[in-house]
Amino acid sequence: MSERKPTLAVVGATGAVGTVMLDILSGRPDVWGEIRLIASARSAGKLLRVRGEDVAVVALTPEAFDGVDVAMFDVPDEVSAEWAPVAASRGAVVVDNSGAFRMDPDVPLVVPECNPEQVAARPKGIISNPNCTTLSMMAALGALHRVYGLTELVVASYQAVSGAGVVGPERLYDEIEAIAGNRTLGTVAGDVRKTVPDVVDSPFPAPLALNVVPAAGSYKGDGWFSEELKVRNESRKILGIPDLKVSATCVRVPVVTTHSLAVHATFAGPVTLADARAVLEAAPTVVVLDDPENGVFPTPADVVGTDPTYVGRIRQALDFPNTLDMFVCGDNLRKGAALNTAEIAELVAKEFTS
């Protein structure tokens, strides 16, 4: 195979994650030749900055994929479902950030720290990027699983509003503006709900300001929301443990960017705290911040805008054998979406230069 720099397309380049993708591409190794920006027809002609140059957006059409080697998609599920096969049929390897193909048995679900070999197993020409909640803990759990064998996982997530798209932060900002300066709110039942804008216009089922909402994603019946089922199903597929016992409770919190997770992980055999910490510290994309006596542990305010997975509050569960508890934070727009997509695409790019 002749050595050349492949052509990359970014589909959904004007969206919340798409704009983060362009920023990430500008700081990543220069493995790409042309970078083509694709979005809806209404965005065609718009200039976006990538790698220090202004690049014009082109409309999403079949012909837009001609000559494209790899296409990173960040668009709604229904758009990916329609257009990812089109891009693949024109010869592009699609790396899709939507939920359209994640559980398709013929589409690998990839986290480069956990299962990079799966990139080559793509009979449909499509590789899926996991949900941002699952991704936020995968680098840490993957490192521990390789050594100790994960058997059970209980997770409580504290999810940023940007996980709901650009409407999430705008809604939270509107609510904060509505209640700013009122120091009596939160003292009487329902007073926050009466003060913030009508929840009917919100992407969330309850106010976010001065509140937490135990509902993330769409309701799927039997008490479960879609984000919780994604954590279960995607963790099993990424780690290659089809019978992994998983239970998740996903909560939306008034944080703009960065998901946090309280993780309760049980392993096949004994795991010491010192050894587990050493495994996490050795993982190249994991940062351990773990000195609770001195107030050192990760929070969204520390993590936002950065690429690693941050882990703290690491401890052995007192009443559960072979079990660790930990607190994990990851920027949901970077490693939780755009960065992991870019890292998968770079694995594919190596096929054109090896």
Descriptive labels:
354 residues, alpha/beta, Dihydrodipicolinate Reductase, domain 2, six-stranded parallel β-sheet, 9 helices, 29% helix, lysine biosynthesis, Asp_semialdehyde_DH_beta, diaminopimelate biosynthesis, amino-acid biosynthesis
Describe this structure in words.
This protein has 354 residues and is an alpha/beta fold. The chain folds into 2 domains: 135 residues, 3-Layer(aba) Sandwich (Rossmann fold); 197 residues, Dihydrodipicolinate Reductase, domain 2 (2-Layer Sandwich), CATH 3.30.360. A 6-stranded parallel sheet has the order 5-2-1-6-7-8, with helices on both faces. Strand 14, helix 8 and strand 15 form a beta-alpha-beta unit. The longest helix has 17 residues. It starts with 7 loop residues before the first strand and ends in a 5-residue tail after the last helix. The relative contact order is 0.16. InterPro entries: Asp_semialdehyde_DH, Asp_semialdehyde_DH_beta, NAD(P)-bd_dom_sf, Semialdehyde_DH_NAD-bd, Semialdhyde_DH_dimer_dom. It catalyses: L-aspartate 4-semialdehyde + phosphate + NADP(+) = 4-phospho-L-aspartate + NADPH + H(+). It comes from Sphaerisporangium rubeum. Keywords: Amino-acid biosynthesis, Diaminopimelate biosynthesis, Lysine biosynthesis, Methionine biosynthesis, NADP, Oxidoreductase, Threonine biosynthesis. Belongs to the aspartate-semialdehyde dehydrogenase family.
The main sheet comes to: 6 strands, parallel
Percentage of residues assigned to helices: 25-40%
Please report the distance between the alpha carbons of the first and last residues. 7 Å
Q: Flag low-confidence runs.
A: none
